[in-house]
């Protein structure tokens, strides 16, 4: 180690930032909104959080999508502070589930094309049924084709 290395170690800039840097996240929340005023109130409340990049409100689906460097629990608490009943988005797209009509997965109140996010709707990765389904799938390039 030479003299320049020693001097550079003494002059190096150390970060005084405390805590970890937040990750860019997309937070989806289900909020019951009836009018333009409700929509505006929720949007303004969430926009006031630090780290929020964009807020998308879909009143028809009762859905608020927040993108930014935020924590999901903080966003949920901020929405609840407006007096609205809010919860994390409990639905997944219908086409991403293997068993959309599994017990407790089908919900009449869900927006069209969505089912509830329950563990029974998804299969385990190493289950034998998944291996056999994939064996004859058109999407598998190594699949067996029987005519």
Overview of the structural elements:
The chain has 147 residues and is of the alpha+beta class. 26% of the residues lie in helices and 20% in strands. It contains four helices and six strands. The chain has helices at residues 3-11, 36-47, 72-80, 128-135, and strands at residues 25-31, 52-58, 63-68, 86-88, 91-93, 114-116. A hairpin with a 4-residue loop joins strand 2 and strand 3 (63-68).
Number of helices in the DSSP assignment: 4
**Class from secondary-structure proportions:** alpha+beta
Query: Over the alpha carbons, how many angstroms does the gyration radius reach?
Result: 24 Å
Order of helices and strands: HEHEEHEEEH
Structure in a nutshell:
By secondary structure, the protein is of the alpha+beta class. It is built from four helices and six strands, in the order αβαββαβββα.
Descriptive tags:
147 residues, alpha+beta, 4-stranded antiparallel sheet, two-stranded antiparallel sheet, 4 helices, flat
